[in-house]
Amino acid sequence: MTDPRNDLQVDLALLVAAAREAAGIATAFRAPEVWDKPDGGGPVCEADLAVDAMLRARLGAARPAYGWLSEETADAPERLAAERIFIVDPIDGTRAYLEGSQDWAHSLAVAERGRIVAACVLLPQRDLLYTATLGGGAMLNDAPIRASAETDPERATLLGPRLAMSPEHWTGGDVPPVRRAFRSALAWRLCLLAEAKFDAMLTIRPTWEWDIAAGSLILSEAGGTATDRRGARLSFNKPQPQSDGVLAGGALHGVLLPLLEAGPAPPPA
């Protein structure tokens, strides 16, 4: 009988090789054409689409039975019937990429029946490769990583936008005394929690699956926790591929969750 852990390692190797090829494409562009997505969806550029096309061709050829969900591909209902599916953000942090920052990533994951089972996040400009398989632990550049054990908000740093620290999102308006920081790529934020560089992360608005799929497994395999902002387990390959925000962290997750005000989500930015 085939060991399922070996199966996941083979899928992970495929993801890593595809991410490295994506890095070669993205870093080769010098002044990509840029346009805005409809309905305030943010910028998209030639590099996003070139990476997406390569990933879909390479991964699809290697695993034709797997479904496909990507930020830069029109969604199709066929993915819902697939037992396994690729969930991909070709360039997570397009704004940072266009600004010449190093803070963008390729985020690739495999989901099986709603849960992530293999994942990689590659930051080419920082030479950072985060990987994980379900039950196999989390790695940064092939070294094991572990999430923060910090439980005191006064000593903690939370990654998130200013909106996350608005009093209306906390019970009684009492914002916990954490320091706030920000990074552009959601996938990288989750990975930074996995290596204990920060203690927690919060998004209030609905969050797309491709932004959090890979990073959520990397964090959980590092001993952390990622849920929606109400504490529900994250599930993937849903008909509407979004979560109700995200609360993630090491030990601090369980401290912050009871303090959050579970009101209606604000409209998209």
Automatic annotation (TrEMBL):
CDD domains associated with the record: CysQ (cd01638)
Keywords: Magnesium, Metal-binding
Record-linked Pfam families: Inositol_P
GO biological process per UniProt: inositol metabolic process; phosphatidylinositol phosphate biosynthetic process; signal transduction
Species for this entry: Limimaricola hongkongensis DSM 17492
Assigned protein family: Belongs to the inositol monophosphatase superfamily.
Entry-linked SUPFAM superfamilies: Carbohydrate phosphatase
PROSITE patterns: IMP_2 (PS00630)
InterPro entries per record: Inositol_monophosphatase-like (IPR000760), Inositol_monophosphatase_CS (IPR020550)
Domain of life: Bacteria
Cofactor dependence: Mg(2+)
Residues annotated for Mg(2+) binding in this entry: E71, D89, I91, D92, D211
Identification of the protein by name: Inositol monophosphatase family protein
Single GO molecular function: inositol monophosphate 1-phosphatase activity
Organism classification: Bacteria, Pseudomonadati, Pseudomonadota, Alphaproteobacteria, Rhodobacterales
